[in-house]
């Protein structure tokens, strides 16, 4: 198994994922590859005084590349998150009159519950995002998370408009725990 630490690469470069998307009739896919590090950023609650600690690595098992977010999440000092995040743009994603309906991930982990955080053009602060949860077990599992399952943190009545999405994060959040989650597939489906 090959392992590359991305923390230094991703801390200095945030690019939009739409540059490397592959598409078929039903999905926009963002495959992990040897170059994926330049599209992702590691962020923790240390940006606001928290003490959570972690890292992101790009790992390879055979022909499969995957991102792995590991670390210790601590709610001390008003903290409580570590995150793997990328800028995205779906402003021109409508196809044949259809909008994107959700995100599909192939994940494995340590049995903990994880979050997807999505920020949009309407997000007015770092804590204003849409979120949903999923559980990552020890075996690889493909999960679909429809956009209508995402709830906005500060405005529960808001509906997530995929054309307004500007960032996407895989997050260990909200409670003291050990994070270990791997993601090998990231697709947005119609």
Secondary structure layout:
Elements: E1 2-5, H1 7-12, E2 22-23, E3 27-29, E4 41-44, E5 53-61, E6 64-73, E7 81-87, E8 102-109, E9 113-120, E10 130-135, E11 141-146, E12 151-152, E13 165-173, E14 177-189
Antiparallel strand pairs: 1-5, 2-3, 3-14, 4-7, 5-6, 6-14, 7-13, 8-11, 8-14, 9-10, 9-13, 10-12
The CATH class is Mainly Beta
Instruction: Outline the low-pLDDT stretches.
Output: 5-20
Our count of domains comes out at 1
Radius of gyration: 16 Å
Can you describe this structure?
The protein has 190 residues and is mostly beta strands. It has one domain: Galactose-binding lectin (Jelly Rolls, Sandwich), CATH 2.60.120. 3% of the residues lie in helices and 48% in strands. The protein is built from one helix and 14 strands. It has one helix at residues 7-12, and strands spanning 2-5, 22-23, 27-29, 41-44, 53-61, 64-73, 81-87, 102-109, 113-120, 130-135, 141-146, 151-152, 165-173, 177-189. Strands 1, 2, 3, 5, 6, 8, 11 and 14 form an eight-stranded antiparallel beta sheet that branches. Strands 4-7-13-9-10-12 form a six-stranded antiparallel beta sheet. A hairpin with a 2-residue loop joins strand 5 (53-61) and strand 6. The longest helix has 6 residues, at 7-12. The radius of gyration is 16 Å and the shape is globular. The relative contact order is 0.24. Residues 5-20 have low confidence and may be disordered.
How would you summarize this macromolecular structure in one to three sentences?
The protein has 190 residues and is mostly beta strands.
